[in-house]
């Protein structure tokens, strides 16, 4: 694995290796026998704000022996229009790897193509691969293998996290049911590219019945703030709450990649009842990303 740019392009063998490595990273935290990033400096290029992604990558790189340079759009000439391929060719001569959080998937892929160093997609408008690898790890940590289980995704099915779940279904062998209203459903092209057992419905009960995992995400992603009122009105029936969970399996997990907006995509009581899982999920970003970084520099 040279880069982690998307779940779509992630080899299933590499996915399993990351999941196994994450368990080791979690169990060995504070007592690592090796530091694979020793002597390396990694750049974090973030055009979008972040809490969990930035902190988990900065801490993870340091715990693996590396150093970090954090650069937002205002810190670099890319914020003034320098082409990404030029930024990539400069940084590729100075740092050992890059973690990029931005709007365009094309920017991440262009950077990887021109920099010649390991590159990680830390979120684009198209995908959020590190998040969904972490989600799968968290599920398996609590319930065993996700293969042949049922995941119900409620809300905006055309967003980046939903896309990564869609691509993950075939690679990890689970069934995914996306419940979303018209206009918020994944495109036929995405579904065709992904394959696997993925169904799309506008009916929440159909998606959730018998599910092992019920998942939701924010309804107004970064860059869509002007659409806020319209999105909230159309997505309101897709809130995760006690009534919805009554249709899932009795021991179904509830996950949210955070930040959570109580009273919108999930109600307060349901969020707090499932907070232990949700914050384990947040912590696990650190462990899975350390596994990703270790795998990238091992090859």
Task: Describe it.
With 299 residues, the chain is α/β, with parallel strands linked by helices. The chain has 2 domains: 12-127 and 285-297, Rossmann fold, CATH 3.40.50.1370; 130-281, Rossmann fold, CATH 3.40.50.1370. It is built from 12 helices and 9 strands. The strands form 2 sheets. Strands 7-6-5-8-9 form a 5-stranded parallel β-sheet. The protein is globular and about 55 Å long. The N and C termini lie close together (7 Å).
Features:
single chain; 299 residues; alpha/beta; Rossmann fold; 5-stranded parallel beta sheet; 4-stranded parallel beta sheet; 12 helices
Layout: helices, strands, pairs:
Layout: H1 12-27, E1 41-46, H2 52-63, E2 67-72, H3 84-91, E3 97-101, H4 105-115, E4 119-121, H5 129-143, E5 150-154, H6 160-172, E6 175-179, H7 188-194, E7 197-201, H8 204-208, E8 213-216, H9 228-235, H10 242-245, E9 253-256, H11 268-273, H12 275-297
Parallel strand pairs: 1-2, 1-3, 3-4, 5-6, 5-8, 6-7, 8-9
Helix pairs in contact: 1-5, 1-12, 2-12, 3-4, 5-6, 5-12, 6-7
- CATH top-level class of the largest domain: Alpha Beta
Low-confidence parts? none
Number of strands: 9
Provide the gyration radius in Å.
19 Å
- What's the structural domain tally? 2
Helix content: 40-55%
Assign an overall shape. Answer: globular
Instruction: Return the structural class.
Output: alpha/beta
Across the major sheet, the strand order is 7-6-5-8-9
* Main pleated sheet: 5 strands, parallel
Q: Do you know the CATH architecture of the largest domain?
A: 3-Layer(aba) Sandwich
Please count the helical segments: 12
């Amino acid at each position: 694995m040279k880069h982690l740019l998307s779940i779509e392009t992630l080899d299933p063998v590499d996915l399993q290796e990351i999941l196994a490595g994450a368990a080791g990273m979690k169990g060995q935290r504070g007592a690592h026998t090796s530091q694979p990033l020793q002597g390396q400096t990694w750049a974090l290029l973030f055009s979008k704000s972040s809490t969990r992604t930035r902190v988990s990558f900065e801490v993870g790189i340091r715990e693996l022996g590396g150093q970090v340079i954090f650069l937002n759009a205002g810190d670099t000439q890319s914020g003034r229009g320098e082409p990404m391929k030029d930024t990539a060719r400069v940084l590729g001569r100075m740092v050992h790897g890059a973690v990029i959080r931005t709007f365009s998937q094309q920017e991440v892929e262009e950077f990887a193509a021109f920099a010649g160093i390991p590159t990680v997609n830390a979120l684009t408008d198209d995908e959020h691969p590190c998040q969904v690898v972490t989600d799968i790890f968290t599920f398996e940590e609590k319930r065993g293998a996700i293969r042949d289980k049922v995941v119900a995704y409620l809300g905006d099915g055309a967003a980046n996290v939903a896309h990564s779940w869609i691509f993950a279904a075939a690679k990890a062998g689970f069934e995914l049911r996306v419940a979303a209203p018209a206009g918020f459903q994944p495109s036929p092209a995405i579904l065709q590219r992904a394959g696997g057992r993925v169904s799309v419905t506008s009916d929440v009960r159909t998606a959730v019945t018998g599910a092992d995992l019920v998942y939701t995400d924010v309804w107004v992603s970064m860059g869509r703030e002007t659409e806020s009122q319209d999105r909230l009105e159309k997505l309101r029936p897709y809130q995760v709450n006690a009534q919805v969970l009554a249709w899932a399996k009795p021991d179904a997990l509830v996950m949210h990649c955070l930040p959570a907006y109580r009273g919108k995509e999930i109600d307060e009581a349901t969020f707090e009842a499932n907070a232990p899982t949700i914050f384990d999920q947040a912590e696990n970003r650190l462990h899975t990303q350390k596994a990703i970084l270790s795998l990238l520099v091992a090859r």
